[in-house]
Specification:
Length: 366
């Protein structure tokens, strides 16, 4: 008989709760940074036809190395900051969360350290925990930027095998300048530096992508997803661009045939419609800038955003503001440092509903 608790969870998981942004059925959902515009009729029809064709082959395992999809992703990235990327530079999985977990499984592990700089994405410590990697977190400045000297010193002191940094950052929207990415890559030595560009397509004009630096740094990994700008969160497709040795190494830890034939067919069809699916990105960026300006007009503090959301505050009782908005049918996210709230950018109608609700809530809680 064992004296283990029931169920016999690892000690490190005792009392842990699963990731869970509330999924509530309310009219205005501005809480998980989805694209509010669904795929077009033409894209949906092509996806459906591609999945129908794939269905006739579902007795067979899918292409383990999803070579055609890697080629299509490389071609897409070469239109958005990438230079000469080929299938061997690309890896993909069921969402970029899975891509990053695989990176930690391959390059983290017991006796190794992963690092990020907070406030940042809440999933990073979970990848570390689940891959038995030590987790270290540095701080961002009060404007959520990274002090390069502080960050460099932290990396030199901790010698992480993985550095995880979103650009634009979630939940603050802050993009990293290329000098910062280069500095991190140099400081990390043989550690890998993962720049998580989940929101890369929303960056403001003049903000570069870390993809531009891939030729200079063999330890740089740039992660992207089809969940945000591509309006395909439901399909679960995330990917990265990096040196071929990095992609090869991940193959050791991926599960057999992890990317289903249905997922591959869906992503390939979506990529054929990339200009259409990304067609609303410009509108969302305009709406984002208008939202940031409007929040500032209300006397609130708002972080500059290169993403499709805005972090604003500060509120003495942010839970009350969040609840007041929800009572009016508007779901946003209670995340970030104490006192701050995050709103995803929706359609003009959704933003109007958000603004009206926020004005009412601020009057009520004043
Ligand atoms: C939304 C998000 C992702 C994307 O997750 P998927 O698993 O690709 O849906 C990755 N990183 C950050 C920081 C995000 O906010």
């Amino acid at each position: 008989m064992s004296d283990l608790a029931w169920p016999p969870l690892r000690d490190a998981l005792a009392g842990e709760v699963p990731y869970g942004a509330p999924q509530l059925d309310v009219p205005v959902q501005l809480n998980v940074n989805e694209n509010p515009y669904g795929p077009s009729q033409a894209a949906a029809a092509d996806i459906a036809e591609s999945v129908r064709a794939a269905a006739l082959t579902l007795n067979r395992y899918p292409d383990r190395d999803f070579t055609e999809l890697r080629g299509a992703l490389a071609a897409y990235l070469n239109t958005d900051g990438g230079q000469g990327l080929v299938p061997e530079n690309i890896w993909a999985a069921n969402g970029s969360n899975e891509v990053m977990l695989q990176l930690l499984q391959a390059f983290g592990g017991p006796g190794r350290t992963a690092i990020s700089f907070a406030p940042t994405y809440s999933m990073y410590p979970e990848y570390a925990r689940d891959s038995l990697t030590d987790w270290v977190v540095g701080r961002r400045e009060s404007d959520f930027s990274l002090d390069l000297e502080v960050a460099r010193a932290k990396i030199l002191a901790e010698r992480p095998s993985v550095v995880l940094l979103p650009s634009p950052n979630n939940p603050t929207g802050t993009a990293l300048p290329l000098e910062a990415v280069s500095m991190l890559c140099e400081a990390a030595g043989n550690g890998v530096v993962v720049i998580d560009e989940a929101y890369g397509e929303f960056r403001r004009a003049g903000t570069p992508s870390a993809l531009e630096l891939l030729p200079q740094h063999r330890n740089l990994v740039v992660s992207r997803t089809m969940s945000k700008a591509f309006a395909l969160a439901g399909a679960r497709l995330g990917y990265l661009a990096a040196a071929p040795e990095i992609c090869d190494a991940i193959r050791v830890v991926r599960l057999p045939y992890h990317l289903s034939a249905v997922t591959q067919a869906t992503a390939l069809a979506a990529l054929r419609h990339a200009p259409e699916l990304l067609g609303k990105v410009d509108e969302l960026r305009v709406e984002r800038d208008a939202c940031v300006a409007w929040l500032r007009e209300q006397g609130l503090t708002v972080a500059d955003s290169d993403a499709n959301f805005a972090l604003f505050g500060t509120f003495e009782d942010r839970s009350a503001v969040w609840q007041g908005l929800l009572d009016r049918g508007v779901l946003i996210r209670e995340t970030g440092p104490p006192g701050w709230l995050r709103v995803s950018i929706g359609t003009p109608d959704e933003m109007k509903a958000f603004k009206q609700a926020l004005v009412a809530v601020m009057e009520e809680t004043r």
